[in-house]
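Notes from the 1:1 (GR / supervisor)

We went over the backlog. Supervisor wanted to see one worked example end to end before approving the batch request, so GR pasted a single chain during the call. The sequence is below; no edits were made to it. Supervisor asked that the structure be written out right there so they could see what the output format looks like.
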Amino acid sequence: MSDTDASPRSRRHGGRDAKRAARLAQVATSVPFIVRKIPNFEVLGEEGLALIERNADTVLQETGIDFKGDPEVLEIWKDAGADVQGERVRFPRGMCREIIARSAPATYVQHARNPERNVVIGGKNVVFAPNYGSPFVRDLDRGRRYGTIEDFQNFVKLTYSTPYLHHSGGTVCEPVDLPVNKRHFDMVYAHMRYSDKPFMGSVTHPDRANDTVEMSRILFGENWIDPATGRPRTVTTSLINANSPLTWDATMLGALKVYARANQACLVTPFILAGAMSPVTVAGTCTVTLAEAMSGIALIQLLNPGAPAILGSFASSLSMQSGAPTFGTPEPALVLYTMASLARRLGLPFRSGGSLCASKVADAQAAYESANTMIPTCLGGVNFVLHTAGWLEGGLSIGYEKFVMDLDQAGMCHALLAGVDTSENGQAMDAIREVGPGKHFLGCDHTQRNFETAFARAPLSDNNSVEQWEAEGSLDMPKRANAAWKKMLADYADPGLDPAIDEALNDYMARRKASFPDSNV
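Structure output shown during the call:
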């Protein structure tokens, strides 16, 4: 067969592939978040959950929580009826739980600048967000290196371009090429400019949280205030980590206060390496996590009743031999399942899980450890999933190849959470009647109507024969992923931003940056 004979056929085949990909993408991008249709998996019954709740209340009452470097917070707790001795706060039994029950919402809407991208967090809803917080970046071409603002913008664009991440996230990587005290401007702006999905704000200083609020006010303009309530719409969800064990520091408290008073959501998450920052047992870790989280969320409600908050749990096991954090092990999965149940009993949205691993590169260890965390994430009933894509090296690195590999699995999770279709089409009785005994279903009308969307697909996976795989270069998964992320960036479609809003944002950033000197503190 000559090249001229093959070319039109190849073009026709490519056209069919392009049309099919477009149709599949249309289906995927129409879902701003997932509504789970499978039940939550529980590992503890009433007796076990009630025991952990009692233990957490005992910790809050007897041991207490330290609130460091914030006299205002100590005064707020004192006025609310807590026992304040120095920076240690002890709470009457059930106090935090009662405050949360009075006003913390079970679900809330985080508004995006594109209303079609709004996400509902809580209930049966699941929102996937990318990696957070890594100072290093890795790819096959350049290896491991410090992240830059260009990397940050790239990951925002990749997140925007995929149908499988619903939220732009926050500090997807640290842009180490920018001053510490000013890089938050460029990070928040990147989310606003290169994506129209919802995003997270800066939490590393109260002033940086306030800059996020002010930039959000500019971005949303007349839509900043909800006319139905007279309060600001919730347009950011920001990560507030406890300094475990049983401590809140001034930095996190400062950011929490700014966001709570502005009606912006706080993702209140004890960050625990079990064995170092909590007991080595699952029940003990859950007790510490619950006590810390309740104290933070109750404070939010004292500051601004009704302000949205997510109960978060990040718990990793620790190697008792080396002291290194480990991932994909059974105990953190049991913590996740248990904490999800406890959050539901409190009536709060829940955050946990992600594609977590300790592997340094996108290899088999990275894959199985990530799967061992993402499957419990889906089954356990997590509402907000940070670190869905890109995590490597215990969070120290974000990998380009790992990012797109994780996107494939996030797509699979969409299908899992959709559950079993029992509609007339799902029952497929017409196909069974048409085919009958001893024949195949490939050519029947039902298969022809459904074949393009019948099964979840992982575009990076190679299911061809070994001969075809060898003929195409014997590419392993990381090499295929390397080509995939580069194509995604090349195909990135800018969502655009109103020039007047863009100008106002840049003017605000320029004035603020000029008002204080650069610093790496």
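Supervisor's comment: The first strand starts at residue 34 and ends at 35.
Batch request approved.
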